[in-house]
Design brief:
single chain, alpha/beta, seven-stranded mixed β-sheet, 7 strands, about 35% helix
């Protein structure tokens, strides 16, 4: 049974989801794999709770931009690991940022690479609480921070970055995120890598001349910022 607030969110989200549902059906008919991945044993191995899915209308939000977001689905740890291994830089010297971090799975995988500063940005307060519960159980030498904020309004840290996105929002928000990152890089040039997993809105990157694609690993596209 939906609460009144959940029903209101559901009614706001449904019209925006119709094109995506149609695309999913077309992909299924064509034999292409659907969005999402099979479950893995990450939670069993770590004692965390990152596996359970959450529909978008079940989530609270800091503002109305949740209509541009996706519901929570965990990214397979193996995919994050392979993408980080493919980056042609010493990631230990970079700050890891997961936009739309959900329950934090990618943050914990990044910490196994020795990255000292790790930041998760999440628009849903309830998912932030879930991530903080997981952080309290996770033992590593990394500084894991979780910020409850709209990614399109968040101020970028002024250090070398590895940015991870598991298709957290649509092109409206992604375009704003990239514009803000570009402004930040123009103000202070630094080394920035971007991992875009399940890249449903890759066209947003194609229009950004300051970003170059460097490779693909499974469902991930790797980009490098070229701002000097």
């Amino acid at each position: 049974m939906l609460t009144i607030s959940e029903l209101a969110r559901f009614l706001r989200v449904v019209p925006r989801r119709i094109p995506a549902k149609v695309e999913s059906l077309v992909r299924a008919v064509s034999g292409k794999p659907p969005y999402g991945f099979p479950p893995d044993d990450f939670d069993e191995r770590t004692g965390l709770e990152t596996a359970s899915h959450v529909k978008i209308y079940k989530l609270d939000s800091v503002n109305g931009n949740y209509v541009h977001a996706q519901g929570y689905v965990p990214v397979p740890a193996k995919i994050v690991t392979q993408a980080l291994q493919a980056i042609r830089a010493d990631v230990k010297n970079h700050t890891f940022v997961d936009l739309g971090c959900g329950k934090g799975r990618a943050l914990f995988v990044a910490s196994t690479f020795g990255m000292q500063r790790i930041i998760g940005v999440e628009i849903s307060p309830s998912l932030v609480r879930a991530t903080l519960d997981n952080v309290a159980r996770w033992k590593s030498g990394s500084d894991i921070q979780v910020v409850c904020a709209d990614a399109s309004e968040w101020e970028w840290p002024r250090e070398d970055l590895v940015v991870f996105l598991y298709n957290p929002f649509d092109g409206v928000i992604l375009s704003k995120v990239l514009e803000n990152l570009h402004r930040s890089l123009c103000a202070k040039p630094r080394d920035v890598w971007i991992i875009y997993c399940s890249a449903s809105h890759g066209r947003c990157f194609e229009s950004q001349k300051w970003i170059e694609e460097t490779g693909r690993v499974g469902p991930c596209i790797l980009y490098h910022a070229a701002v000097s």
